[in-house]
Amino acid sequence: MKLSALLMPTLREDPSEAEVVSHRLMLRAGMIRRLAAGIYELLPLGFRVIQKISNIIREEMNRAGAQELLLPALLPAELWRETGRWDVYGKELMRIEDRHEREFCLGPTHEEVITDLVRREVRSYRQLPLNLYQIQTKFRDEIRPRFGLMRGREFIMKDAYSFDRDAEGLEVSYRKMDEAYRRIFNRCGLKYKVVEADPGPIGGGFSQEFMVIAETGEDEIMHCDRCEYAASHEMARFKGKDQEKEKGTVPKIETVKTPGVKTIEQLQKFLKIDPKQMIKTLIHEVEGKPVAVLIRGDHGLNESRLKKLLKSENVKLAEPDFIKMATGAPVGFSGPVGLKNVKIIADRSVPGIHDGVTGANKEDAHITHVKYGRDYKADVVDDLRLAEEGDFCPSCDGGKLVMTRGIEVGHIFKLGTKYSEKMKATYLDESGRETVCVMGCYGIGVGRTAAATIEQSSDKDGIIWPAGIAPYHVVVAPVNFSEPEQREVAVEIYESLFESGIEVLLDDREGRIGARLKDIDLIGIPVKIIIGPKGLKENKVEIKLRAGGDVKLVEKTRALEEIRKILEHGE
Amino acid sequence: MKLSALLMPTLREDPSEAEVVSHRLMLRAGMIRRLAAGIYELLPLGFRVIQKISNIIREEMNRAGAQELLLPALLPAELWRETGRWDVYGKELMRIEDRHEREFCLGPTHEEVITDLVRREVRSYRQLPLNLYQIQTKFRDEIRPRFGLMRGREFIMKDAYSFDRDAEGLEVSYRKMDEAYRRIFNRCGLKYKVVEADPGPIGGGFSQEFMVIAETGEDEIMHCDRCEYAASHEMARFKGKDQEKEKGTVPKIETVKTPGVKTIEQLQKFLKIDPKQMIKTLIHEVEGKPVAVLIRGDHGLNESRLKKLLKSENVKLAEPDFIKMATGAPVGFSGPVGLKNVKIIADRSVPGIHDGVTGANKEDAHITHVKYGRDYKADVVDDLRLAEEGDFCPSCDGGKLVMTRGIEVGHIFKLGTKYSEKMKATYLDESGRETVCVMGCYGIGVGRTAAATIEQSSDKDGIIWPAGIAPYHVVVAPVNFSEPEQREVAVEIYESLFESGIEVLLDDREGRIGARLKDIDLIGIPVKIIIGPKGLKENKVEIKLRAGGDVKLVEKTRALEEIRKILEHGE
Q: Which of the 8 DSSP states describes residue A372?
């Protein structure tokens, strides 16, 4: 392709709409353009990267025995009603009526549709296992679409669904996907961690996320500094640091006036105490009833563990009115002492608070010198706090947890029978008994993978594409294309590369070489061949890698050979 | 791929929902399944065919210098309002509101979006010409979706848009697309005609359709029996057959009672006259005013020519009340004699009707012995009838028009400045003058191309795929896979084919060979290698082509070589 003909509208200035590096650089490199909030046009260079990633996914999914198909985007409401998700999904689900006023949604995910297909077409154990996938456009009306391709309202996703005879079969299918995902992200040139994750609204018992490590990531990851253990902050387990038992008597409780002091920070300043002394009391509404959750002042509550402990999804921080009703006081002054008719659940660290401070259940008042067992008791004591840096790793001896940030590019789920049971996706086993299929599902955000790559791989000049997903491998750039000798050598090298299957651009544009190379560095092409008068005097051309390193002068006749070596080595 | 693992739910019986061969066979071969009216799931075999066609399109578009990109499916209403199509498109356009009540539609075509992109990104003549294309899912809420992938509500289309500096540039771009389309449909193995067509709601001055010849086609095509001339029935031009001038005096006009005789057929029976004697009078409402259109009884009116002649799109057959108002009589009794305040337009053949019959503009009455010039005159005489078989070809000497039926798989348009002018897609020319881009657009129905292929290529046993777009090239089918020698030879041949890049299936299923081969013929795989005990005694296997011909016995070690020869020859 000649650069003069390519639609590549690069920008000199940083566009104001972009907050993160990848968004900024994809706009500046002319790879994407915004059509509406969270809705992007993929321009030729952007489309090529998406195709590269899609093809890697396709090859690895096929290698793992999965079969590609294509499901519609317009999905009938009936199917979503069968699983109850028509109502659960809320405004994120884009709904539409056809000319006959039949209800449809634009698919944000395809569990219902694929389960419906399998229940219609699969009858016998002989047809299982089955792993079906598609690379398709999804729609989610995100409340806050942002960061370009990172969180869009229309985006390309690979989604796969496995159907097995039983749980052991699912284990095999899941492991195959785990392996395929590692190969995919390795081939994309990404540094990532596989973390235990919350299955969220997709559901199922167990899931793992593939997280690309990046400072700009939206997600917090806890991982061990010694072993492979990693989990989302919410899901991270830990072995607590040993707490020294404090001794000595605690004075009687005392109520102190704390006018307008509602938060831990305010209290810390006002009473000049350590947050470790505070008993944070978070009133929750659980299935309509009040529950007081006690956490040490320096800890964070793990909502997901709380839900698991209470065996309910219907758990939320209570509204002010509800708190007033349950404790008699406004928000900010709750505490466990004297609290009646409210279930109390405490994190394991709370009973160890020797001489504590907590709310008095009265406006503008707290209580000091509070002691567990003497002044209050919890109905349940369990692990409820979020893991913290320095906590011991739950899976090895002596490793400590470290926090880092990541971008979720893949998510794999053991769904079990959540959908197959509701939708009656069954098969007849060897003995002719009707049995429910056991499912897994496996997603990759294709556009997000491209964006995450840039978050990990760029410099002040622009994108640095790993060779595996670069839109083109090489640019041949003569210093002056209108100079006959340079042009002749450039075209010759360009054609030899093209004919040997290397994806190559020819910079035949007018203008100064400096400005043109700036463009080429911005779009991140891995290898440049620069052809100038000085080198040509010795029959040489310059080869320069985008990722850095010295300029290499090679005989012009050896350019192809040299490039081949670099690309083979690089991928 | 092993057939036992492939999701290929073939059906023994013809499904009742299918009216045409391609729909029936795609369902029976387990290639597609219906999710809702006009909305289909592409199962693995169906998806592969769609991919094959897409890749052929991609290669030929790239070869023609077009650049692939991907535009969104969710399109903001504002853009469609700019061209006025938001209102014009009617119910076929699927409209949706996002969570902020902003209006979008699901793209049925992308002229607005691409023109918007180009007006934002193209500034200089140096950036032109540009040809941008995508292969993408389109949405049209068809009032009568039918025939499977032939006319769906959600379907895959390749759409391309060219932008040129001027009309000469458009000619070049258009010709390149014409050539690319011919290569694409040739590679798909299709028999087709390129016909002059009506641009319809897409607009522009000139368009051609690529029509796959098939009896089940929805469109009528007129083509010359000698030269390359072909056009849609509506667009077909012709040189009329010479009409013999009849002589002799015509008696005075006479009114005859014709109670309840309203149609040409009824009149023909009632008066026992030749339809060639009848002056069919069709009252039209044109921009709110009545126009009487006269056509000989045996001819059909060409609505599209009438619109062109009247220079109006607002032309329709009048409603009964309007006819009564204009002529004083109910429907079925209109005629030109004595008609006042109504413009009269006659086809060129009408003045030649020697002794005619027409309506009396009175209920239950006609007039006989009507003569042009004496009893009535037209305000305009022009070509208004549809071409007929036997008419002389307009483009060669002595060729005659023949009618055939076709399926539109591609449509190319010279749009001119219809969109670029409205949306101000301009560039600065060499002299710095702002100039409007000249556009073309070019579509291919990908799923429809697959269906059209089957309409042209099937037999009683199933589909016969041309090798270029077959889901797999070869099936290796042992008579009994559990028999060790057969299995060993089968696996060996399968692997050797697989490794040399041939797309091959291994029939490892249980069951009788007869039933299994029925499945394989149904899905239309071009080549079968059958491995049975009789052949193996002489170290031979059978090679059989789906398209017919003799069974060939070859040495098992020569199978790969033989298959290679067949596939190279076949494509």
A: B
